[in-house]
Protein: Globin domain-containing protein
Amino acid sequence: MLRIQEDLTNERCLRNQQVIIHSIYIFLEKAAITGLWGKVNVEEAGGEALGRLLVVYPWTQRFFDSFGNLSSASAIMGNPKVKAHGKKVLTSFGEAIKNLDNLKGAFAKLSELHCDKLHVDPENFRLLGNVIVIILATHFGREFTPDVQAAWQKLVSGVATALAHKYH
Structure:
């Protein structure tokens, strides 16, 4: 009987340690995200991210017919409407960062808009998230460590899932 109690106590201690380690890891991820976010030039990085998405994945251009000239990479990257919308998109990531524990709620209205009105393929959210991570890596170099990259990859994945929520 004593051996069983000892085993249960050890098991509880192990579970408590795992919870503590997980909590510390989440805290460090949030710190990595918020620490870098404070240094992001949203206008510059947002325009660059959306521009690269439109260049690398040209089928995404169909959602931006009203943006004018998207005929070449230089036209896209210099397009003021692309830059302005990119800023708007990346600004929404600021909202995500303020609501890391409720991404689905933070993006409920945008999910509904993109699903019901714009009919955007939810795969595009994942693609844009990956482009954002690449842009941040190029802007921040060595400061964009593997741990920071992992935290941001987790964030953009969570945002993509939240934006795709209405589709399910």
